[in-house]
Every structure is written in structure tokens, then in C-alpha cells.
Description:
By secondary structure, the chain is mainly α. The chain has one domain. The chain is built from four helices and two strands; from the N terminus they run ααββαα. A hairpin with a 2-residue loop joins strand 1 and strand 2. It is globular and about 30 Å long.
Amino acid sequence: MKYILNLIFTVLALQPLSLSANEPENTKNEIQHLINYVATAGCTMQRNGTNHTATESVSHIKKKYEYFIDKIDTAEALYSA
């Protein structure tokens, strides 16, 4: 179901981004929304040829976000990091 995650990131990419001073907060909210969606969607995420449960996927997304937090300015940047 990696296609679901690709779809999620595509939808996020098409969302208009605010150019306000709250951009980091908006990005944080977008990523939290993504995490919540993955956690509740019940899908399987395929990463590096291995399937992972929603719980494992959420854990991976959170770790990746925490690791790249200084380099992430959009949800799309998290996907490509």
C-alpha cells in the first residue's frame, strides 16, 4: 500500500502553503495530520522492499521527522529526505 502514502504526499503537495510567519507551525500540523492518517488508515507501508504495519510506519515517520527537523520546511520535504 505504498501507493496510499504516495497519494497522501501528493495531496499534501497540492495543498496551498501559507506564506505567513507560522509556516513552521503549519508544516508541523501537516506532518502531524499525516502521522494521524497513517496511524488510523490501517494500511501497510512498503519501505525498502519490506512491508510495515501502521504502527511501525508511524514510528518511522516520527523518527525521520525528528532526525531531519532542521531541514524540513514542508511535508513534501519529509518525504524526499
